[in-house]
Amino acid sequence: MEKIRVLVGKPGLDGHDRGAKVVARALRDAGMEVIYTGIRQTPEDIVNTALEEDVNIIGLSILSGAHMKLCEKILILLKDKEADIPVFLGGIIPEEDIPKLKKMGIKEVFGPGTPLEKIISKVKEIAISKEA
Q: Which residues are in the B12-binding domain (predicted)?
């Protein structure tokens, strides 16, 4: 497999991007190619950028509480565009929402304080298993 290409996106109105930047840097330092969209992106912006950049996986950072709606919208847009790109999520996500998000199609959910090594290994695992 070539270098894993990851899009890190911040959908919605949440302006706090420190965690997303830390994860993006960790993934880059682990040898992945990272495209960071910046804050306040629409689901359409994120999906279009992922397609234009031909990424292997999308990481979303959501702290605003709108994770259910935003993730659903992004997954629908990906399906509509017949794009088979796995999506993982990080942020402040209530424990009871995690099973719903995974059932919806989110591959993994990382809460605050998740060790960077765990995120890196899981992102690699998801991206590589998609290639198989």
A: 3-132
The DSSP code sequence of 67-126 is: HHHHHHHHHHHHHHTT----EEEEE---GGGHHHHHHHT--EEE-TT--HHHHHHHHHHH
pTM: 0.96
Q: What is the pLDDT of residues 10-52, one digit of tens each?
A: 999 888 899 999 999 999 999 999 999 999 999 999 999 999 9
CATH number (domain holding residue 41) = 3.40.50.280
CA 50/CA 54 separation, integer angstroms: 6
CA angle 90, 15, 70 (to 5 degrees): 50
| Number of domains making up the chain | 1
Q: Which domain holds residue 38?
A: 5-131
